[in-house]
Amino acid sequence: MADEVIQIKRYPNRRFYSRDASKYVTIQELEDLIRQGHTIEVSDSQTGESLTRAVLTQLILDRQPDKISVFPVDMLHSIVRSNEMVTDFLRDYFQQSLTYLEYLKRHGASGQNLANPMHWVKAWMDGFKPATQPPAPPADEKVELSKRLEELAERIRQLEAKERVP
Questions:
Q1: Helix crossing, 52-63 with 27-35: angle to 10°?
Q2: Fewer beta carbons within 10 Å, N or C terminal of the chain?
Q3: Domain assignments of the chain as residue spans, ordered by start
């Protein structure tokens, strides 16, 4: 089933062992599993440390070098130079970008909804899980804002009336 995560162990001899299939697998077989829609998790057999990111990166570099062009050279330089704040920003940016990719996968690249930017915004917003609801402004603040809004609307009407006079 493509929804299940396939656990892979990497041994010191750099061989990969699929616990699900109970056999050693090649990097080609890992690539095939991913292309079929499976998610893999690769861990070191001795330490249990996750190696998934490193293995996927190596797979792209070795077996699909044309896809590394997704990252412009200037961006790669920026990533190497980045501090923790920039790295956090880029991590969040790419994570949110996955929301768009999931939207495209669900609705198809030629879907009519792609023409409407509001569908993109909704898909992006659906990817967020708000921590808490922002507190409602106090009632007196609402009244004050309402008064200020009325004053601004009146001022706009006055300015528009002056422009119409020849």
A1: 100
A2: C
A3: 5-69, 73-126
Q: What pTM was estimated for this model as a whole?
A: 0.57
Burial class (CB in 10 A: 0-12, 13-18, 19+), 38: middle
Pairing of β 5-10 and β 39-44:
parallel
Nearest-CA neighbor of 61 among 99, 98, 31? 31
pLDDT tens digit sequence for 104-146: 777 665 555 555 656 656 665 666 555 455 566 677 788 888 8
List of residues 6+ apart from 127 with CB closer than 8 A: 96, 98, 99, 102
CA–CA dist 36, 134 (Å, integer): 42
What is the Cα–Cα distance from 99 to 92, expressed in whole angstroms?
11
Cross-sheet strand order for the sheet of 16-18: 23-25, 16-18, 5-10, 39-44
